[in-house]
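Teaching soon. Invent one.


***
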Amino acid sequence: MNMKEKSKTVALDLSAAVNKVLGETQGDKGGLLNLAKDGAIDISGFTRKSMSVWDLDFKLHNSPVSGCPDVVGLRAAEPTFAESVEIEVGRKAAWVYLLHAGTFMADKGPVGTLEFVYTDGSIQSVEILNDRNLTPFRYGGPASEAKRLTVSGTNPNPSSWIFVYAAPIKNPASDKAIKSLRLRAEGTHKDRPLWMVLAISLGDGENLLAKPESIELKVDATSPQGKIRRLHGTNLGPSLQMENLQDNTADLKALDIPLMRLSDVPWEQGGVRLVDVHHIFPLFHLDPKDPANYYFPQTDDYIAKCLSAGAKILYRLGTTIEHSKKKYFAFPPADYAKWSEICCNIIAHYNEGWDNGFHYNIEYWEIWNEANIGAPMWSGTWEDYIRLYITASKTIKSRFPKVKVGGPAVANLPLVKIEAFLEACQKENAPLDFFSWHSYSPNLETDLLPGPTTCRRLLDKYGFAKTELHLNEWHYPGIGSFSTAFNPAASAESKRLAEEDMNGPDAAAYTCAVLSGLQDTPVDMANFYTASGMAYFGIFDIYGGKKKCYYALSAFNRITKYPKRVKATAVDDKGNEFVKVLAGLNDHGSLAVLVSCNFTGKCKIKLDVEGMAAKDCAVSVIDAAHDLTPLSKPVVREGSNIILEKPEEGSVFLLEFK
């Protein structure tokens, strides 16, 4: 590819590059990757080979793409691969931007090299590392626009996702003209990433994806911005099975969780018959009107513990996700009307005292969970789920008009399926008091945070203007760690690293950034996954110790005690890409500021507070060395600015002014 005529790169439109690659790449059967309307990739044209090897031959795109990187192809295979591709350049360049679309694993270390072949005959190599210099999309932003794409079709791991990353690679000898670039991807075992498509763009001057060395934040305590909303709901609650060994009820109560969603409870509470419809009514052929056919005791105790932790309840009617090869309960009920009647009796037990029950007035009732992902949750079609929802929702609301019924609890935002669901609900006049969806995306600015606005637009389109928005599963996915967690071929060491990544300082910064960013969206509630001791997703370890995400939820809970929100922002757009800042006043006029640094790399944070006289400031920190604990040294000031020194890892600062 001759790039002599290509103009100087002044911006990166990576979204256009991704669309080109995914929309135009051709394989033996043609249209190997076709971007569907709902954002899913149809990979049914892949050829599955032994040893999890995929045949990923791509045609080379040899013409420059206006406004985006030039696309090249690369054959890749697991568990071992070593392929290279060379591109002619013929000019100087300070930076090479490498675009990668594929499934990353958490295994640290080199995943390839980029060789700079200069016109004077010399060669210099730059190592491409997993986890750090290949992951700028973790913090999103205009210069690093990304799109998460769910995978459908013949996929070895149907629950995995494809993410798009870009890496700025600095030319080690920018004074020399580059003859060619030689890209070599390497893999030695199954935990290496699956390289799918690559794109290269050249740039001069400053690194377009560079992280800032300093960020200026400004808080104006005289400029009200409404209320700080308590959006830190959770999935799951206190342990029932292990309560005599480690009872975490008090720790959860300290978080002031507004809403606990009861989904996947049996997964975390092994050996206990909880919540799921088939656990409460285990023999479907029996009479649903007979109380003797129901088993409530353990679910009664579990809900009582959740309520004792101070939270309200969202009860998911359905089944827990099944990660076993054989599925036992993840299929449509044999009789939708009968299943709906059973659900009504469960509601009657907890809200009307039926069968020696209670009068809890549980408001939210959700119908099933993630039916759109297929086998782990639902063996039927999407149309089957829509029919179940319409049947159950109308039955429930006719008997309990004051409760709120909702769904579809979709994974990601499959727009085609969502519109089909909403259209059917509108046509059948089915109630939809709340709309629920899930996101495990590392891309806040281009994916997770725009989600509520997308949902609001669709709901309004179909006449559901009063329907609440519930993002009721979300968690930091790490850098490939989510895929590693669900990859049976990943090594034990990779899974251990994934656990650390999904619950470390970066996860804490992400958690606070999400809760801060959601304040400016139309979402009504968000439920972190999970407030339990579950592997990968829990806020407690197996010994009952608190993980970093516990302290992140605690930091956010503390800022909600200063509910009168005031204006707080970074001085420039670049800072807003990297930091979320949330500030509020309490009834006594005291100020608190939550600063979430959702990126890696050391940085100086300068905080300027207007509208308040200089006061003592207590700073609590979450990073590798701190668990929402005070700084070990006095607060540094430069004039009116408070200086915060961010370490290498993601970090959270909570400032409380006395």
